[in-house]
Give the backbone structure.
Amino acid sequence: MELEIKRLTDKEQERIERERENIFKKLENIPEEGVEVAYLDKTFRVLKGVFWPHDDSKEIVNNMVIHPTDEVLDVCTGSGVIAVFAALKGARKVVALDINPKAIETVNINAKRFNVENVTEGRVSDVFSALKQNEKFDVITCNPPFSDRKVKDENRKFIEQTIKDTNLVVHKKLFEGFQKHLKPTGRIYISQSNFGNIDDMLNLATSSGFKYKLIGKRELENDPRAFYAFELIKSS
């Protein structure tokens, strides 16, 4: 699949910023016990303080290849949809990481809902901090924050951090950790968007010793946003 990025105009970027702010306000006004959110062919429970699953992760879920012997790591798991689908696709083990404790609670709720709690483990983690030094995985999945932007409101920090990565700190930690925690023949599935730092992410991949391939693209109707899924493997 060729990499053709749908570039945005300044007006389209402004529109996305307004819509993003509306999403933040919507998420602030849900009950503590969360809400039911439809995603692909399933419905997930998402607790307050956790970003809802959206179109950004669907191309990973639809295109990732999971074998029955695979041990999978899902970083920046959020509501856990990628982790749960990896388990449903037959992974032997899934570890889901997120810095937000409410996200890990949400993962556990959904793993139990879809009867994959025996193979799914959620851990509160600042990127890879909850992993042991020698833990390695066949597959690493990640739907990270897309944009080099600062969090504006500390009261909703966890929500904003799902799409804002100041100075691309998370991206840099990701590629450091990918080298440590991916098995030599393993593969990574990672998403990006046309309103994010897609070129920077791909440059980080290359400079970190990975080859990348576009495996999915989702353009939204009457919407300037587009989302991309990549498969990364070690160059040598």
